[in-house]
């Protein structure tokens, strides 16, 4: 089994972490991952992560929901069995549309919300019996951890990370899963 | 300090003169004699009249002549109403922008928003239009009774009331003096608030402590309570009573939603204009983004109320309520449904994207559509009751809009020169200057 080395720098303050991210990026080291106990504003920008496209998927899912509701009610209420229910005009979809709008609205929201959440779970690989991935349990409480891959530059990296205010710098042998 | 550019001043005066000429022309050409209306109708309905004669041959000639006289008089009245209604719609529309801005401003004050203080002077400037604008609305309404022939509100006509049991029952509320006194109370309350809050806001610039800020906070909270009651009653008086047989409970909020969204759009416009001229250096694209979010949100809120009012009445289809929408759907199909596209569909799709909300030209383009849409909204609230199916958008309507647009620009930009555009000692000004979303 192949092993690779990573360096774990642990911080206790998010401001220090932000500055550390900036200096590590300035030195052109690739940050593999950062573990934080809470969302740190601007961390994604500092790391240079691409913006999320989750909102775009939600818009498309909403459009699907709207289409489903229109198709469903046009088929059921207008085409399949156009009954006279309390004198409401069921001759065409448009004539009876105000009565369908609450359902069209709700299904649009329903599809947009639920499918977007499911997309989020799939893309971030979250499910009920998933093994937790945090390398250090303290990162869920009050510590911040930056993980950087080592390519025979242990000493320089350690020095840089110490300078950025890391309270702990550990080198970890990581077993590759593949 | 902002200086009113001569170009803009000339432009606004040109608008006023052009508008006045058009309004004058509208009033000059709206007085048709009985015979003139007869010939107009004969020209219009030539084919119809013949078909009509066939199935009413049983009716005696006398009854027919009577019917004909009534019809012609009805149309004569509608033609005479048009310039009144046109100027009333435009006057109300611009008054409503100032009032919407004032309400939004009070909300910003009362909620102690951290993003908006850099825009406070713009909002205060726009609110100064409320006093002249509101008085003009009241004067037009009063003049339509005292000078005109009750061209906007039928319940002002004692002749009509005498034959109308329903209006008689409402006469306790719907009478001319009650209308004018209530109008002055509403307007007085709003204008007092706008005067004092601006005074405190400017006093805070040179103050040593935050007393003025706290005073502004307190009167804003009190004003919001007063406003929500009076705005509702104002919408019954100034808008809903054009159809005195009709009533709707959510009407006040519906008018409020339109008011807020057009007000916020105008804040965005004037902010962008001043920014482009180099004033308002602390306004960044995050402020614009926030304004555009409010435009987006209140557009949806407006549509929610429009639909709630329409759908509930359409669904139950009670004759005494539904005539309101029957008149609009039959005679005003394009404006009535078109405004839903302008006020909901268009802003919904345009302002959904976060990046687009930061682009000035995009916000301006969408804002123009929103303002046109809300003008059409006021138009379809007033016109069916005054001119009925004889509506069009021509010289009386367009020149009324020009007249009030010119007046609005003149008053608002004149007020903007009266105080520094950046509040100085507002406790939230630092946060607002550095606001970033």
Keywords:
heterodimer; A: alpha+beta; Alpha-Beta Plaits; four-stranded antiparallel sheet; 5 helices; 16% strand; B: 437 residues; mainly alpha; 17 helices; membrane (chain A); transmembrane helix (chain A); DUF3341 domain-containing protein (chain A); transmembrane (chain A); ActD (chain A)
Q: Shape of chain B from CA axes? A: elongated
What class do helices, strands and sheet pairing of chain A give? alpha+beta
Order of helix and strand elements from N to C terminus of chain B = HHHHHHHHHHHHHHHHH
Question: Number of helical segments of chain B?
Answer: 17
Number of separate domains of chain A = 2
Low-confidence stretches of chain B: none
Strand order of the largest sheet of chain A: 2-3-1-4
Give average pLDDT of chain A, whole number. Answer: 91
Transmembrane segments (chain A): 54-77, 97-122
InterPro entries (chain A): ActD (IPR021776)
Keywords (chain A): Membrane, Transmembrane, Transmembrane helix
Protein name (chain A): DUF3341 domain-containing protein
Written account of the structure:
The complex is a heterodimer of chains A (178) and B (437). Helices cover 46% and strands 16% of the residues of chain A. Chain A is α+β, with helices and mostly antiparallel strands. In chain A, helix 3 runs antiparallel to helix 4 (97-123). The longest helix of chain A is centred in the middle third of the chain and has 27 residues, at 54-80. Chain A is rod-shaped. Chain B is mostly helical and 437 residues long. Chain B has one domain. In chain B, helix 1 (6-28) runs antiparallel to helix 16 and helix 5 crosses helix 16. Classes of the chains: A alpha+beta (178), B mainly alpha (437). At the A-B interface, helix 4 of A face helix 12 of B.
